[in-house]
Specification:
mainly beta; eight-stranded antiparallel β-sheet; seven-stranded antiparallel β-sheet; 2 helices; binds 6-O-phosphono-beta-D-glucopyranose
Length: 301
């Protein structure tokens, strides 16, 4: 089947591959970046703009198997976020990251970028994921509720982006200083804004509420800053499992937690999206990287 896909979407810089478990991925290599996306989950696992180290984080212990989530990259969470509120036996973060998506278009764009268009259906919604691999990584999840739907429907979504950092204990995250948050590691309490950049000093699992702001990961030791710009997203989730939770996850290495942080472009909780029949909503995240001067990291805390 991946040979057939290579014939149908013959775009310079793009090829389809299949792993030993039968999962098909799109591999991108252009003058401006490399990247990879698995059709299962429309799951981006890699993006590396030329001149930079890989931007997305992937666990060495990740599964790449049918029906199992990939640990790292950009899982798409839909139609709920976290455990299902009514049925804990349903998969965490919904079905979108577990099911096969269809690739419907692949195109070369200006600036040596490659744009992919993928679709799937999660009853009653139709999902379209548009991703542009270029000097920036642009992702849009468009959710449509068909006109034929019997009633309005609501959902949660997240572009659950795992970023690679030099050491999570030395980064700061800017952009959420004035925003209150639900603290999932402290009885889901709603806490007031801290008015400070976020430092990761213990297990962190926070849903920042009512924020449309960009976030910047300042990684002075890694000599770069990563910016997440978003549209159509009213929640931002910040997650690092730290020591104990890492050990409890079978697909996450015990000592991998310092090398990652998640900044998730989301609509969750009270910011869930409600659509009437015929309506649609788009959630967009754009990732860019900027080199920081080596001198800005002193190593002092
Ligand atoms: C985060 C949640 O978005 O995803 C965390 O806020 C959760 O609570 C994490 O642990 C990973 O989820 P999963 O289902 O991929 O292990």
């Amino acid at each position: 089947m991946f040979n057939e896909l290579n014939r149908r979407f013959s775009v310079p810089g793009l090829r389809f591959e299949q792993n030993h478990n039968g999962l098909i991925s799109v591999v991108i290599q252009t003058a401006v970046c490399t990247g990879e996306l698995f059709l299962q989950g429309a799951h981006i696992t890699s993006w590396r703009p030329v001149g930079h180290e890989p931007v997305l984080w992937l666990s060495q212990k990740s599964n790449y198997e049918k029906g199992k989530p990939i640990r790292g990259g950009v899982p798409i969470c839909f139609p709920w976020f976290g455990p299902n509120a009514n049925d804990p036996t349903l998969p965490a973060h919904g079905f979108a990251r577990l099911q096969d998506w269809q690739i419907v278009d692949a195109q070369h764009k200006d600036g040596d970028a490659i744009e992919l268009l993928l679709e799937t259906t999660i009853d009653p919604f139709r999902l379209i994921f548009q991703v542009e691999f270029g000097a920036e990584l642009k992702m849009t999840l468009k959710t449509q509720l068909p006109q034929s739907a019997k009633s309005s429907q609501s959902y949660e979504d997240a572009l659950h982006t795992y970023f690679s950092v030099s050491d999570v204990r030395t980064i700061s995250i800017r952009g959420l200083e004035p925003v209150s948050f639900m603290d999932k590691v402290d009885h889901a309490q709603l806490k007031s804004a801290t008015h400070c950049p976020i430092l990761i000093e213990s297990e962190t699992d926070r849903v920042y509420v009512d924020t449309l702001s960009d976030c910047v990961i300042e990684d002075a030791q890694g000599e770069r800053a990563i910016r997440v710009t978003k549209l159509g997203s009213a929640s931002t989730v910040v997650w690092n499992p730290w020591i104990d939770k890492s050990k409890r996850m079978s697909d996450f290495g015990d000592s991998e937690w310092p090398s990652m942080v998640c900044i998730e472009t989301a609509n969750v909780g009270d910011s869930r999206i409600r659509l009437s029949p015929g309506e649609s909503h788009s959630t967009t995240a754009v990732i860019s990287v900027q080199a920081l001067p080596a001198t800005s990291f002193t190593g002092e805390s």
